[in-house]
Amino acid sequence: MEDRTTLVAETAFQRLMMERALAMAKELERTGRAAQHGQVLDELETAALAQGREFTRAALEGALQGRVDELEKKLRSTAAADAGNRGVTKGRRRVGSSRPPAM
Length: 103
Hints:
103 residues; 2 helices
């Protein structure tokens, strides 16, 4: 009987990485089964290194893009708020003469 686990991704990036990790594990299992006797370790190591580099590159790219998207969203909302306040002064305006009082 096979163990089954349910994973819950909280973000699209997490879902993508889970899918990639599962695909990598399946590919390594296929590689191990298909390897000729005496070559299993070499073939698995070669596949794991190549797939691991790609997995790591995709993880870094996805995490970085997520951060860029967050910052762009923040900048857009800040720019929209600034544009909405255009022409409005924030401080109290001082009334009266600008000359100092006579002594």
